[in-house]
Amino acid sequence: MSAWVYILRCCDNRLYVGSTTDLIRRLADHGRGRVYSTSRRLPVRLVYFEEHATPDQARQRERSLKNGRTRRKAIDLLIANFPSDGLAAFA
After folding, report:
1. For the whole model, what pTM was predicted?
2. Phi, psi for residue 51 in degrees, rounded to 5
3. DSSP 3-state assignment of 70?
4. Cβ 15 vs Cβ 7: under 8 Å
């Protein structure tokens, strides 16, 4: 079963990193304010995602992005280099 790691940019310009096995449903949950962490920071916009083979791999990657050793500059580079046509399906 595949899973995704995703990054959202909230209205206050903060980033939210998460993982899920159903990216479309999870984005809808965020958009409807059903996710506590982002419900007060709507609207949110998908800025990055990547697919993994298993949910465990996706959770590991999510944790690595949230790790204090992962510099904001590295995350900004991931977002900047992500092809915008990849986001078009989720706009």
Report:
1. 0.92
2. -95, 145
3. coil
4. yes
Q: For the chain, give every domain's residue range.
A: 3-84
Decide if pLDDT at 91 tops 70: no
Whose CA is closest to 18, among 39, 43, 38?
A: 38
30-61 tens-digit pLDDT: 999 999 999 999 999 999 999 999 999 999 99
Please say whether the structural domain 3-84 has been given the CATH code 3.40.47.10: no
Integer Cα distance of 19 and 16 in angstroms? 10
8 Å CB contact between 2 and 51: yes
DSSP secondary structure string for all residues of 14-38: -EEEEEES-HHHHHHHHHTT-SHHH
Phi and psi angles of residue 72, each rounded to the nearest 5 degrees, phi first: -55, -35
